[in-house]
Fold this protein.
Amino acid sequence: MSRLEFEDLPFDERPDLTPYLIHLTKRTKNQDGCYDAFENLVRILKTGKIWGSTSGSGFIKGTNSATCFMDVPFSALKYILNKKNADPQNPRYEPFGIIVTKQYAYGEGCRPVLYLSNKELSVIKLPKDELWRVVRLDVNDEGWISWLHEREWRCKGDFFLPYKLIAVLVKNTNYASRLQTILADKHVDFESLPKSIVPLTVICQGLPYL
């Protein structure tokens, strides 16, 4: 069987597929007292990297940190940024983020996670150094523990962005203008520059809970 080029994969044949991965930022005021979701986006662009989460700052198994992405079409973000996930008091997701192609992410070591139960994990005996790949999936008479809907990819450690980043996501056109001004005035301070700034209120046709 001959191999396909990345551009030949069936992303345009099904609405549930996408050639992109998305990393959404959120506030970290409770952790370091400094940054909201927009400021974290700017900080990522300035440093040119996304910092990996750990078992303490996220839900990463093992001792290695990992950077997390979602494999979801842009049209699905409206449902991810819902009333429960975007609760202003304790947001799981906020409407700011980084977009990279799967092709670039794969080259940087990013892979789909392994969805495994604790029992399966003990049977497989995955090396401790590879536990960052695992997300728990447990189904029994008591119910489900499942994060399959996130369609997550991870990269071990920090994730380094290209200098010319394909795009970033911001909440609305006001934030898009704000970021454009920052980039125009201080572009030399940035390790990664987005080719486009995409307002989520436009591509999602509104964000009813935000």
Notes: The CA atoms of residues 80 and 172 lie 16 Å apart. Residues 173-186 form the longest helix (14 residues).
